[in-house]
Amino acid sequence: QVQLLQSGGGSVQAGGSLSISCEHSGSTFSSVAAGWFRQAPGKEREFVGAVSWNGANTVYANSVQGRFAISRDNAKHTAYLQMNSLKPEDTAVYYCATDSRAYRAVLMSAENYYNYWGQGTQVTVSS
Hints:
Blueprint (H helix, E strand, L loop, with lengths): L3 E5 L1 E4 L4 E7 L9 E6 L6 E6 L6 E3 L7 E6 L4 E6 L8 E8 L14 E4 L3 E6 L1
Parallel strand pairs: 2-11
Antiparallel strand pairs: 1-3, 3-8, 4-5, 4-9, 5-6, 7-8, 9-10, 9-11
């Protein structure tokens, strides 16, 4: 059974930076896209961004474009979410997930395309 173990996150003042790592326990990581999602209190979980299986392509939600960066190191079976210029509205629990289909050509934003999920990491941004 694949597990995704997240680390990082925490609390920061507005304008600061945080990062989250997501380590994949299996051997299939290098063949699947990795996505990031977040859920703020009282809101539905939303797509943040994703990186293709080989790291060549990324896509971001409009709300984080230009401030967040997603990357991956397949040798370490790890995906990363770097968050800069954080705003109070970025406060949420952040989740990583991996695509259910290997070598998918298009990066997907809908949750149902992802079959393994991390445990979630709290990010709190104070004003």
